[in-house]
Design goal:
379 residues, alpha/beta, 6-stranded mixed beta sheet, 4-stranded antiparallel beta sheet, 16 strands, 23% strand, binds iron/sulfur cluster
Length: 379
């Protein structure tokens, strides 16, 4: 990695300390493709019904209701996707064996469940020496992991510890940025119960959320396996609770929003449904996930999924695009030397497949050139 960049917070954008639940959407939309074989015969389905296999994973319904239609949409990345639309009947009838409340389970029982579970075997944890939980958020306004730990720290830590014990991994680390004092506080209290888990407190360096950079920064190689907290919680739900984790945490913030908040929402909910929760008094643009990208998205196109961690509602501003002044700043800032300047001057003919879409080059460009349109331009 060429150079490390620290992120600077915009004081006009607030970090939320409020959590709102929105777990009864009117409809949900789940990605489906032509190759997926439907596993159900009826249109009427229960919560937790296995619907089809998509990219080697079974897709479960997060609500009870009726399958209404297949729709095509351009998603938030600008890609055409096909979705299965399910209309909520609000009966919440489910097929789960496990209960919704707290699950009390002995560690040796978890071990037995893990040993016969195929999902966990697919992680290939044999021969690993370090388990690293990556809690880092590069965007400084995102508070999803704070609420995830506030509400699920016991499940996450128990599961991490049990995984390590089954695979005889003695070194467990949790990577957290020094700015995340609230997460550190939550973890420090509970880590007394887990003396084998160590906090790895890191400086505020941009891109450490990315596994590749985090490993590089910590000088870790193949001996380490990285998990995200949400991934561990999902496994806990699958294996211990015997229910599907059908919710996600998403931050809604930006300088146009009066009441920024984190929303616990059902996977597949349309962003439009959440507008009743927020107060916006100005005309706004929507930016998904990375503020540095400045890429505006349309409200109608946003279906909330695990791929989305934050939605920014930003006051409308018109940044005029000017010609490239050949300053070279974009090349200089790129952390992996992708040469975005070459992409601009060749009108997108030069591409570097390693580009991380981190947005730093767009952010730094004094001519307001949207690099992504060149870096990802079709031939
Ligand atoms: S978006 Fe790609 S080219 Fe631009 S700085 Fe990031 S990695 Fe480099
Ligand atoms: S930062 Fe912008 S203006 Fe400067 S070389 Fe790159 S594309 Fe051109």
């Amino acid at each position: 990695m060429k150079n490390f960049v620290t992120s600077k917070k915009d004081p006009k954008i607030k970090v939320s300390s409020i959590l709102t639940e929105y777990l009864l959407p009117n409809k949900v939309y789940l990605t489906v493709s032509k190759e997926d074989q439907l596993l159900i015969k009826n249109k009427k389905i229960n919560k937790g019904a296995s619907l089809y296999e998509h990219k080697n994973k079974i897709v479960y319904s997060p609500i009870s209701g009726n399958i209404t239609k297949i729709v095509k949409r351009i998603d938030y990345k600008g890609e055409e996707k096909t979705y299965l639309e399910i209309l909520n009947d609000f009966k919440e009838e489910d097929l789960y064996v496990g209960s919704e409340g707290t699950t009390t389970i002995m560690v040796h029982d978890v071990k037995k469940l893990l040993e016969k579970n195929k999902i966990i075997q697919s992680f290939h944890l044999e021969n690993k020496k370090i388990l690293l939980l990556n809690t880092i958020e590069d965007e400084p306004y995102v508070a999803n992991n704070y609420f995830l730990f506030k509400n699920h720290k016991d499940e996450i830590l128990l599961f991490l510890d049990t995984l390590a014990s089954i695979y005889q991994i003695t070194n467990i680390k949790i990577a957290v940025k020094e700015q995340e004092s609230e997460i550190i506080e939550i973890l420090e209290q509970v880590l007394e119960t887990y003396p084998n888990i160590e906090l790895q407190i890191l400086p505020d360096i941009f891109l450490l959320q990315n596994d590749f950079f985090l490993k590089k920064y910590l000088k870790l190689k193949e001996e380490a396996y990285l998990f995200y907290p949400d991934e561990i919680l999902e496994l806990y739900y699958d294996i211990v609770k015997m229910r599907k984790k059908d919710f996600i945490y998403i931050t809604l913030t930006g300088d146009a929003i009066k009441n920024p908040q984190v929303v616990k929402v059902k996977k597949g909910t349309e962003l439009k449904e959440l507008l009743s929760l927020i107060k916006i008094e100005e005309e706004y643009d929507i930016i998904v996930n990375h503020l540095l990208h400045h890429k505006k998205r349309s409200l109608d196109k946003i279906i909330l999924s695990e791929e989305i961690s934050v939605i920014y509602f930003m006051k409308k501003e018109t940044k005029e695009r000017k010609p490239c002044i050949h300053c070279g700043k974009c090349n200089f800032i790129c952390p992996i030397s992708c040469k975005p300047y070459q992409s601009v001057i060749t009108n997108g003919k030069y591409k570097n497949k390693d580009c991380l879409s981190c947005g730093l080059c767009t952010f730094i460009c004094p001519s307001n050139i949207d690099m992504e349109s060149y870096l990802k331009k079709e031939e």
